Amino acid sequence: MDKGILLSGGLDSVSLAYWKRPDIALSLDYGQAAAEKEIEVSAIIAKELGMDHYIVRVDCSSLGSGDLVNGSAINGSPSTEWWPYRNQLLVTLACMKGISLGINELMAGSVLSDGFHKDGTIGFYERINELMSYQEGNIKITAPAIHLSSVELIKISGIPASLLHWAHSCHTGSVACGKCRGCLKYQYTLRTLYGDQ
């Protein structure tokens, strides 16, 4: 049985992939605005790390909201990029594909700051792990970096800057907008690590 990772091409998932070296990378196009760039970056990282790379495409854009679909956030959104039940959706889709690939563990790249949303917390991953482990397929869901900041994860992973700089964290499209929460996190993280180079 193999280990898999949800690989979005962002700073955290790229660093986690480098650190943990799973066998299989799963990238999802679920209708998000940056899907093509995320998949492009993920393919580069997977090839560099010798991981088998699979892409799952299911258009759920009509269910999304905010920055991730270049639309308005729905009422009650805690932030402009909030997509209802997104991580639950991503884990489910990845496991649906992962069963046929023989994975027994799926890693997600959530870090401490993702706890801003309920589906980025330790409690969420404990519950989704219990649910997915209970069902046929018995896939374990882990978030190995959930106690770490992005900076701490990058340092622990040992990922070289040359590979990390491929990461794409923008929520709004294939070209970094520089203003969304993903871009601001990317800028802050790299400034913290490398200064204003």
Describe this structure in words.
The chain has 197 residues and is an alpha/beta fold. It has one domain: 3-Layer(aba) Sandwich (Rossmann fold), CATH 3.40.50.620. It contains seven helices and five strands. The chain has helices at 11-20, 35-49, 86-101, 122-134, 150-157, 161-164, 181-194; strands at residues 2-6, 24-29, 52-57, 103-107, 140-142. The chain has a five-stranded parallel beta sheet, with helices on both faces. Helix 1 (11-20) runs parallel beside helix 5 (150-157). It starts with a strand and ends with a helix.
Gist of the model:
The protein has 197 residues and is α/β, with parallel strands linked by helices. The chain is built from seven helices and five strands.
Low-confidence stretches: none
Per DSSP E runs of 2 or more residues, the count of β-strands stands at 5
**What general outline do the C-alpha atoms trace?**
globular
Mean pLDDT: 94
Number of helices: 7
Q: Which radius of gyration do the C-alpha atoms yield?
A: 16 Å
Look at the structure and give the CATH class: Alpha Beta
Family: Belongs to the QueC family.
Pathway: Purine metabolism; 7-cyano-7-deazaguanine biosynthesis
Protein name: 7-cyano-7-deazaguanine synthase
GO molecular function: ATP binding; ligase activity; metal ion binding
